[in-house]
Amino acid sequence: xxxWPLGSQIYVIGNVNNHNYTVGKAxxxxxxxxxxxxxxxxxxxxxxxxxxxxxDVDSTAPIGWQWVRxxxxxxxxxFLEAFEGIDQITLREPMKARLMQRLPSLFDAILxxxxxxxAEESPTPPTPTVDKSKGDAALRRFFGGAPETDKDDDLAS
Length: 157
Known about the structure:
Layout: E1 9-12, E2 26-32, E3 37-41, E4 52-53, E5 57-58, H1 65-71, H2 74-80, H3 93-100, H4 106-121, H5 132-142
Antiparallel strand pairs: 1-2, 1-5, 2-3, 3-4
Helix pairs in contact: 3-4
């Protein structure tokens, strides 16, 4: 189990014992116990939280929603933010380890490694291509928007 000294910046990456910290957020190590737990201070509010385990923290920030939202088109971000829990997504550790070796092209690396991991985990037939214009038209109708063109009528076929 890796630990960091008092005053170190850490990031919460898990929640094994139902602590009151936010996963993905940075904190400062404020108190260390000899039973494998620590308490951390929120650098913004100064509040020290309850006890959490070292296995729930890391010295590097998790790659999660805060990063993902910066590389997605604005309309996709807006759509996904309508769902609960989207801010809790994080990159799986095996993927993170592979990607850290492939920086500086992190976006391309995530896509490449995701394809490889999916193929390794469950070989399935390739995903069919989707006509984006039909999908967009279906979403507009679902959310009550008017279709932009007559080609939206093709959805019924």
